[in-house]
Structure formats: C-alpha cells, structure tokens
Predict the structure of Jasmonic acid-amido synthetase JAR1.
Amino acid sequence: MTGSMEPYLKKLRHYAGHLPLISADYGASEGWVGANINPTLPLEQVTYAVLPQTGYFEFIPLEVENSASSIHYLESEPVGLTEVEVGKTYEVVITTFGGLYRYRLGDIVKVTGFHNATPELRFICRRSLVLSINIDKNTEQDLQLAVEEAAKLLDAEKLEIVDFTSFVEKSSDPGRYVIFWELSSDASEDVLRGCANCLDLAFVDAGYVGSRKIRAIGPLELRILKRGTFKEILDHFLSLGGAVSQFKTPRFVNPLNVKVLQILSRNTTRSYFSTAYGL
C-alpha cells in the first residue's frame, strides 16, 4: 500500500468503509525485507522492521539532491544493517540463501528508527527513472505527484482515475511525454484539456521545464483509454506466467514492451496535447 500502490489508497478506503487497513509486510520477488510492527499507524506513515534472518542486508547511503522538487541521488559505500542512521535515505541491497549476491533491489527507503537492533524502514519509491528525453529526469514519484495534481480537476465531474501509466514518445522530433489514463466515466473536453496542461506544468524538474521552454521537449500528450484497458494489461502479464500477487501496473512502458504498447494504442479513445508552454 506504499510507493506505486499508494494511488489506490483512496479507493481502497472507500470500499473498506470502517474496516482497518494494514500493510503487513515489505517484500519483493527476491525475498522478504521487513514486517510492520506498528499496525495501527496510518498507511502513509507505515514502517517496516527489517527481518535479519531472511538474508544479508546492506544499504547504499544516498544523498538526496532536490532540484525544483525533482529527486536525484549521490551514492556512498554500502553500510551494514546496524550501521544505518536514523533520518537518512538508502537503497536496499540483499544477499539471499537462494543465491542472489549483493542484489540491488532498486528500492529507496528512509530509516525512521530501530526496533531493538534492527532498523525500521519507510518505503519511499523505486529508484529507476521513469521519464527522460533530454536533460530531464522524472521519477515514479514525480509522475505520481503530477497525476494527483491533475486529478483534482476531475473532482468537479465526480470522476476518478482508475489507473495510469506513461511512455516517452521519441519517434517525433522533439520527443514528448505521453500519459495514459483510464477513467471511471467520460469527462468533458474542457476538463481533459485542462488536465493535459496541468500534467505538463506539474513536472517541475528544472531540466524538464527548461527543455519545454526552448522546445527541446514537445507538448505533453494525455491519452484517454477505454474502460477495462488495465485489466487487459493484467491478463497479458498473467498469460506470460506472472502471479497476481506480484503484479504492479507498470508506471513507465519500455519501448521494447511492444505488446503493452499495442494494447494501449488500440484502446486509446481520445488524445489531448498540452498548450501550457504555447503551441
């Protein structure tokens, strides 16, 4: 319920009603990392105590550089489980009994404290870049914040975003960001044009803003999908042998993932280009 799953919290709370929601543990395909020992905390504040018996853990210290709200990281040498410091940010490295050796999970976490001698972690985001064309660098977290900002414009029409993903379109010159939305119902043309502009302006990374102003990156495109598109994407991944419990909606579609791009393309019903930086 954290990281890339956080956008579903609002909907989950709606359907759960008075039932308490608990994020029990922090795991990955490569192995279990931690357990939630404070289940009464709000999900936005949940932490996980590392389970030292599940593998050998190391942590790469990351110095966070904020550039107009975009996040970049400078690395230091890895430290051990008991050498991490409260308040600092790290990337998780795991060595497992199954044979993985010093495997970088790509997960960014923050140490919030210790339970006995094991650190408690708060999951921040995935480290991998989501969107980049020129000198711009926008992470999964940047994309999520942009979508949340634009989604506020849907409130007046009592609509919500079922799910979303993104793609970098480089076949045109200049390249541009493409954001895909599946909505709960139809929205007006004016609202969707406003959403396209809002998305474009919500990416506040200095590299992106500068590139947009000098036309090194083209106008952001918002594509609206047929209802049921992300269910089709889920079915595609399951047909490849994936497990439902391990599926996460891809927030960035790699150009090599031709099948998913085909699903998105044939299910696109409307398209809107941002005019936020002029035509």
